[in-house]
């Protein structure tokens, strides 16, 4: 059974993955916010490299980078910028470096659709077609810029050290999705990545043999703004629940 470590595992996606992956993988969670330290959960600040590397369990097969500050605004003030750089870039570099030093063969990075948010408005592509991974990644804010920077430094680690790095440009993931999707239905009906599809996407990334790749994570919603054909072709991702499945039942 593969040993999978969720770094930032107490957030929305981490919560979903902890309960969704545990049947097939040995799942651990590291986060600055944990209810209590346990055999499978440990308080860890990924910005502290020594603390991070000491708390990653022996024999780990996959690190999943789910780090977040909760700030996805556009251009921010200097204090917020420093915090975001520390979490999104410096701590992400620590994770990649830990994988290299501990001989962990794979890092899955929860990137973001905001890497290309210049091309999207209210859940619709402004290009007249779906946005794909070959479109130059213009971002409207620091969040998307930093996510792209981590994708790129991941390529360097993959190229130099042979680490498999999978970047997943996640759409809109919600806990309590049957009510949360309606809070911004105009966008969410197109951008939603359902809970079951979130689990499926990360599972396929964990078991893939791809050396380096970038994929959009979105369910097969009507008029979704991003093309995820390569996730279907290269990862074997199959969407099992989309926004129509919720909306039509209300």
TrEMBL record:
It comes from the Bacteria. Transmembrane segments: none annotated. Residues 4-173 form the NAD-dependent epimerase/dehydratase domain. This is Hypothetical conserved protein.
